[in-house]
Structure of Alpha/beta hydrolase:
Amino acid sequence: MSRLEEEYVSINGIEQFLLHYPKAPGTPILLYLHGGPGSVESLFAYELDNAWGDLFTHVHWDQRGAGKTLRRNKRAGLPKTVDQMLDDLHGVIGHLQRKYGIKQVVLLGHSWGSLLGSLYVFRHPETVLAYIGAGQVVSMLENERTAYQETLAMAQKAGNQAHLRTLEKMGEYPPGDPELLLKLLPKMRKIQEAYDNGPVSGSGLGDLLHTLRHSPSFQWGDLISFMQIMKVNHPLHLEMLSFNLREFPPHYKVPVHYILGEMDTITSTSLGKAYFDTIDAPYKTITTIPGAGHNLMHERPGEFAAALRAVRQTL
């Protein structure tokens, strides 16, 4: 198994957890921004390392309100705003610059992490070598509207009457009340995951625990953080619902690479492709992985690694 390094770094008043998979000196540093808010990737990073090999020294950050950072700080470190998370991210990148003696990192944002990553690139392009968006968020409300229609079509094609009844009971979706939408999201995600793929998305608690128990970074106390995701990240979930990437001029000062799952029912691939077409960047590429869902890096590890290899060759 590859060598790994764990550390807590003091950033913006709390101890924040970083997991490193170091490679040879001079290898580009890739910072992975996990989804959620609150869904840490560090516990699954060993699987990514097996697939990615020596492409990057990849670093996984348990964000404020997530994973080991939540466990270390308890209520003192609960997230409040997206701006606060962006300040944290800037502090993490500053630490990586000093630790590795570099000026820029490759930023990979998945799902909620793609929201953070996109906003960060607009604010601090000088610190980013390239941006990679996976499960890219464009507009949360438009995404939910599109995802509902796509999920409804899949349920009709499958002839799943239970799913069709649940979707019908939701009424007009997404509702205008943000609190009501947050209450409906778990039901919506459960149905969506039935048409998704992968060991992390919708395959059941047993498979999830099996994956976790083989993680070199896993401790049983980490399960507590999973159980608190929605509660402690509630302010971020509410703020996220109003996010729309189209409100910002699509002018990127860094190369942009999208890697999307063809069957992603959580963040609509059609919306991601449409937005990508509007992007003005020094260099941009888009890869769609056939048959992959929202957690495409786990569902199709070989294909995702190939897409990353193509990105690496452009650096």
